[in-house]
Amino acid sequence: TEVGIEVALKAKGRFTGDLETDGATYRAETGVSVSPSSGSTGAEWNFDFSVVSYAGQDLSGYTLRFTVDFTDVNGNRVEEVVSFELPASGDQTGYADASGGTQGIQGSQNLGWADLFDSDAVFDPNLPGSYDMSLEVVDTDGETVAQSDIRVEVAANIIVAADGSGNYLTIQEAIDNADEGDTILVKDGTYGPVVIDKSVTLLSENGPEGVTIQGAGVSQGSAVRIAAGVEGVTLGSADHGFTIAAGTDDLAALYVVEGNSDITVEGNSLTGGSGHALLTGGGQDGLTVRDNSLSGDGPAAVAYNNGEASLGASRASVEVNFIDNSFTGGDNAGLLLGIEASGGTVSGNNFEGTADFAMLELWSGGLAITGNAFDAEGGSTAVLDSAGAYDEADLVAANSFANSSFLLPSVDAIFTLDGGVLAVDLTGTGVTDLDLSGFEGDVRIEGFGALTRVVTADEQKLTLDGAAFASLSGTLTIVG
User: Fold this and answer.
1) What phi, psi does 23 have (nearest 5°)?
2) What distance in Å separates the CA atoms of residue 45 and residue 238, rounded to the nearest whole number?
3) Average model confidence (pLDDT) for the chain?
4) 116 Cβ partners below 8 Å, 6+ apart?
5) What pTM did the predictor assign?
6) How far from 260 is each of 151, 287, 290, 292, CA to CA, in Å?
7) Residues 47, 112 contacting (CB under 8 angstroms)
8) Do 94 and 103 touch, CB atoms closer than 8 A?
9) If you average pLDDT over each of 137-151, 265-279, 386-400, which comes out highest?
10) pLDDT interval class at 326 (50, 70, 90)
């Protein structure tokens, strides 16, 4: 260039040398490669970079900006999935000749490199698509004085197609023959139930509308089962998820069995029927459920995460995240989401349809619960704090509720209003005393559970559901 700076990028096989190339376009595959010398593992591809000054200029006076744009297999483009400034000098990558006439930086980096400089970087070499990579040298006036651009076209290393155009006819065959870290891309069609027993990324080509994984409808069965102890599974992504449907007698659409870690479920439509849309066993660590549609007719909870409350401390779950999902209950649905994990996030979710017991039940503390919309019908409890670990006033302030919400001081729960009437269902809660004196409005008790005493406000209309009287455990005293 005019200022005497040269910049270069080159993609290559992580441990295998040169990739197939056509000019500045390189072709790679997803998956994991293994070093023949050390046995270490990494993505199938990475890249070399260099910035050299031939005019004796100090590179520390320039900004070195690295960006990556990603385009998925359907042409959806995301600008700057990675964007950060690279240090222009330093022992780890810098060099200079003895005369000082030439200096620069260079290196060979894997795709975890971005995390060294930007902890928020999203750079996943196991997503098939095109990676447009650019390294710019920018002067103090903001002008680009040197630049190198390459494209890396990454294909899924395993293709499933029911019509025979891929590597395998069924998803299960592909999983059985996959290596740890492989990416499996599934073409449109309906496929039978699968068991994921290794670390793989499973993506559909065209999203939930194109690919259905159907459960067989057997006792304790599921459409997708992630086996006990398996780590590092990705099921779906934005625009590349699945319709995952439980059969008539299945336990769940998706069953994450026990002791799993680093599991991501994204962009799917999960339907549980009378079973669960999603069920996990205990010992989950780092489960993220993002941007899915989960529905169930009941009576099973639409989604439930087991942990210490049900299974004991040795099988406790931690860091479980439900983000930007929709939970929809059918006519017989009781609970939409139950979480026993400590730590994690519940944010941006919509709770819809019917929930006769509760929309969200919490069995442990430490969850960040914000930005959720509790809109299910039936006058159900919006948030049931079975752990007694949360400040209900904070939950009300950080989330939204259909019509309005009301805190009952004698119960760790937030109830919503049904047509202006506070509908209370205490079935299964163990509550014996119910204090309604702080509520200026009418109340309808639809389920009594262990209730023995009710305190009402002056001139408050209290309706007791006659159909539920058979569940009374003894005498009910009403004071007020």
Assistant:
1) 70, -120
2) 23
3) 85
4) none
5) 0.76
6) 35, 8, 17, 20
7) no
8) yes
9) 265-279
10) very high
And the tokens for 149? 């651009």
Helix (H) or strand (E) holding 177: helix 171-177
pLDDT of res. 125? 59
Q: Which two tokens stand for residue 125?
A: 């070499």
Q: Compute the distance between CA of residue 9 and CA of residue 323 in angstroms, rounded to an integer.
A: 36
Q: Which residues pair with 137 in a beta bridge?
A: 64, 146
CB under 8 Å to 120, separation ≥6 — which residues?
none
* pLDDT at residue 192 tops 70: yes
* DSSP letter for each residue of 386-397: TT--S-HHHHHH
Give the separation between CA 341 and CA 334, rounded to whole angstroms: 20
Give the bridge partners for 287, in sequence order.
263, 320
Contact, 282 vs 363, CB < 8 A? no
Report the alpha-carbon distance of residue 133 to residue 314 in Å, rounded.
46
226 vs 378: CA distance, rounded Å: 34
> How many Cα atoms are found within 13 Å in the side-chain-facing hemisphere of 473?
15
Most confident of 78-92, 114-128, 241-255, 404-418: 241-255
* Residue entry with tokens 């009418």: 442
The pLDDT tens digits of the residues spanning 329-382 come to 999 999 999 999 999 999 999 999 999 889 999 999 999 999 999 998 765 689
**pLDDT tops 70 at residue 120:** no
Secondary structure E strands in 297-354: 303-305, 318-323, 326-329, 335-339, 344-347, 350-353
What are phi and psi for residue 114, nearest 5 degrees? Answer: -55, -35
Instruction: From residue 3, give the alpha-carbon distance in Å to each of 10, 125, 138, 425.
Output: 22, 34, 11, 75
pLDDT digits (tens, 9 = 90+) for 293-324: 999 999 999 999 999 999 999 999 999 999 99
- Give the integer Cα–Cα distance in Å for 193 and 109: 39
Residue 71 has pLDDT above 90, yes or no: no
Burial grade of 61 (CB within 10 A; 0-12, 13-18, 19 or more): exposed
Closest CA to 426 of 461, 458, 473, 389: 473
